What we know:
Layout: E1 7-10, E2 18-20, E3 22-23, E4 26-27, H1 34-43, E5 49-53, E6 56-60, E7 73-76, H2 79-84, H3 86-99, H4 112-122, H5 126-129, E8 133-137, E9 145-148, E10 152-154, E11 162-164, E12 173-175, E13 195-197, E14 203-205, H6 210-237, H7 249-257
Amino acid sequence: MSKRKTLKIDLRRNARDFVAVPWNDFPMLDLANLNDNRLHRVFGRLLGHAERKGDTVNFFIVNDHGNCPYSIECEPATSLEIQKNRNLREDLTRLQQKLYPKNGSEVAMDLRGVRSHFEELRRLPKDNQSAHFWKWRIHQRDPWKLVWFWGFAAKDLELCGPAICTNVECENLFLLRNGTNNCPLCGGTGQRTKIVLNETGDKNVTWATRSDSGRLGRSVAALFLLLLLGAILLLDLSPASRYSGWLGFGRLASFFSSRKLTPDPQRDLTPPVAPPET
């Protein structure tokens, strides 16, 4: 089964939103993908797995075993969510510990450029940070995990949140500028901030946040119950409900119980006797 990317980044020279971050005078997201292999030895699943092809970078989620799960739920993680969610907060702490190791296990790799990149992102306004720090899980009952999509930065400091093109042939990460939701790469409309990759490889778009979708589900359930109760009352009050309908069963039973269901004491139930033969 082939890997399914989570999102992609446009790093063309004339790209509207993002630019590649340098590391030792070369792009951190290099064309040979060597830096991705080096950094994943240190950070593991805390970093999104990057594959660059030309001016396009595809990012994948990687689990603790180094594999790319095919069915995930993923969305931007705000600074407030990271602060309040224990699992996300612990992952961020673990990421910082690997950036600033206290022992010599990671000293062989010069991480100064990666540290500078991380620190610059953490100094961004909260809305802008969510383009880089995402949360993901496989099942709804699973705890959220943090992932850092790295190696790129916004071209300016305009306050805008991230979005993903809904065109399945594009799936470009871009920034919502001036209240518009048009993808600058393909011109597709719409945005999404939550991704579900199912086992068939299809991406299901959800337009509500997790809290909004919960409220929406409860509202729909309450409305359905009200409509059901109204239908039952109307059915029970109708003439046909005497012999049908959910609440009409009692009346139907009473009707049949009063119709010859008990022996009539005035009725002669003795079987007729045949006349004698002559």
